[in-house]
Amino acid sequence: MKVILVNGSPHPKGCTYTALEEVAGTLNSEGIETQIFQVGIKPLAGCIACKKCAETGRCAFSDVVNEFVDLAVDADGFIFGSPVHYAAASGAMTCFMDRVFYSNMMAGRNAFYLKPAAAVLSARRAGTTAAFDQLNKYFTISEMPVVSSRYWNMVHGVQPEDVKKDLEGLQIMRTLARNMAW
Description:
Blueprint: E1 2-7, H1 15-29, E2 33-38, H2 52-56, H3 64-72, E3 77-85, E4 88-89, H4 91-106, E5 117-123, H5 128-141, E6 154-156, H6 160-165, H7 167-181
Helix pairs in contact: 1-7, 3-4
């Protein structure tokens, strides 16, 4: 089995990554292969509903969205991680998710259908529950089982070192991983 963990933070080794690494470590200990996919810092256009994906099977914009959807076909599960910006997922992550899920649906692909998914959020203090709700909606509209933990899947901190001190948040990440492995 393979789970792809998506890092929607512009910081490849920041707080969101730290949370995803905690999940990946537990998944690996459960015998599940993992891959962290970095959305990156290049500008991402939002979906323009041109419907080219319905004709070609790919998003009209050639960038990380098409790269990810190609990988997603062979994955068994997904964890989508994002920092919280103004009580929402990052702008890049929102554009990424809109285009990934829209192009998958319009192209008639089944890259996500009935595959388990979870959202992981990272914030200094607040806004996580609104962002958590935002990301979970992509899963439910795509008929993906949503994997839960003992609490909402979030960590808190400004720097990765802060996240490593968020013992409750790290425990939530490990429980999430064990639930995903099940």
